[in-house]
Amino acid sequence: MFVLFAAIVLCTLMVYTLRGGMVSNRGLTVVGMDIQGLGMGVLAFVAAAWYFGPLYGVAIVLSVMIHEFGHVAAYRIAGHDDARFRLIPLMGGVAISDRAPETQAHDFFITLMGPGICLAPMALAYALSEVITPYSAEAAHFLWVFAIVTGALNFFNLLPFWPLDGGRCVRILIDTFAPGATNFVTLGMSAALAAAAVAMHSMALFFFAILGAQSLFSWSEAWVHRTPLTKPQGVLALAAYLFTAGAHFWGGLTMLMRYL
What we know:
- It is a single chain.
- By secondary structure, the protein is mainly alpha-helical.
- It has one domain (2-259).
- The chain contains 11 helices and 2 strands, in the order αααββαααααααα.
- The chain has a two-stranded antiparallel sheet with strand order 1-2.
- The longest helix is centred in the last third of the chain and has 29 residues, at 231-259.
- It starts with a helix and ends with a helix.
- Mean pLDDT is 77; it is low at 89-93.
């Protein structure tokens, strides 16, 4: 019961932290349907359900929805009242704002809160799966699946490769502690990901590597003129990044060990 109590406390703290962004001041905004994206999302869901099983497919969709809502809530807290959530299954939680974050602190907060918000439901799902096992083994199993899927997906998302959230966080941190090395590190992240893609024969990873390298040429001037993190902020941001990545690694370890 202590684990369940701790998970409930964590969920309460997360809701309190994001209280300013849970609901939009503009109400519900419908931004239309992306037919192509919807089709890709459905295909991705079907592929996940076929390869991992139906429970995993549902868990992936729920996890991505929560992850993307974390980005949207963080945008709103940072003053982006226009931030919207467009739902496309699996692929289509897309956080949209008409303005770029004004500071690197805002950018880091917005980026990390996608994986960050998932810590609470992951912990709660683990705790509840143990509590309700004697009463409903099926429900307990789904909660366990949701927890390991959430951990694995968000740990992958926090790997230091652009354009994943982890790559964005690391780029901000490098720009804080070693500004002259930002582009070099970004190129290094892309090269490492490309090497991993070749070793694993993964076209998807290779595509991510190309996107990362392309960011060197398409990076907007707004980045250069934004207020950077201070050194104390950088230390706090680094600690938050490492803690979040470590927690998701622990939460998704079962799935990571099974399929990697």
